[in-house]
Design a protein that fits this description.
By secondary structure, the protein is an alpha+beta fold. The protein contains 5 helices and 7 strands; from the N terminus they run αβββαβαβαββα.
């Protein structure tokens, strides 16, 4: 009885193996109709395409809801080494588990120009969720903007995104080391 069950399991596994790597052929027939088949086309067909499928696995490392929200409402965080507000802003997005791009106003003139155009000022942090902008860090405003955009309320377990690097403070011109005389 046990050996029969094992044999049936092995036969079922071998029979389903072709399903994991299916081939599909596509061509136009003499009447111009598009034909799709798992059987090769007749030898008279000239422009047949063969497509390989490797099962019905959805690829991607991010959850579907996050991907849809990211495509419709991408997130950009404009920061600098501004201190607590910028650190809290970045940490908030990381903990919520949303993918975002970070633009540093100290390192990029383009980022400065973007913020100036968006807000009329050069204050950071600024959060851009799609076309919705929020100046300054406010937990409740940011939560509401991300909720409206369709982002999940928390990161899936074990799926926190890798955050963009935090801006590094630029050394002030007065902090240049004094030149030492040559011996």
């Amino acid at each position: 009885m046990k050996s029969g069950l094992i044999l049936a399991t092995v036969c079922l596994a071998l029979a389903s193996a072709p399903l994991a790597a299916a081939q599909l052929y596509q061509w136009k027939d003499a009447d111009g109709r598009m034909i799709y088949s798992d059987q090769p086309p007749p030898p008279s067909v000239k422009n047949a395409q063969q497509k390989n499928f490797k099962g019905s696995v959805i690829e991607g490392s991010e959850p579907y809801a996050v991907r849809v929200a990211r495509e419709k409402h991408p997130i950009t965080l404009y920061t600098s080494a501004c201190g607590t507000a910028c650190d809290q802003a970045r940490q908030f997005l990381i903990q919520r588990g949303v993918p975002f791009s970070s633009k540093d106003l100290q390192a990029s003139e383009g980022a400065r120009n973007e913020v100036q155009k968006l807000t009329g000022k050069l204050n950071v942090p600024v959060l851009l969720v799609g076309s919705d902008k929020i100046e300054g860090f406010s937990d409740s405003q940011w939560q509401a903007a991300l909720d409206r955009a369709g982002y999940p309320k928390s990161a899936a377990p074990g799926s926190l995104p890798v955050p963009p690097p935090a801006p590094v403070p630029m050394p002030s011109p007065a902090a240049k080391p004094a030149a030492t005389p040559a011996p």
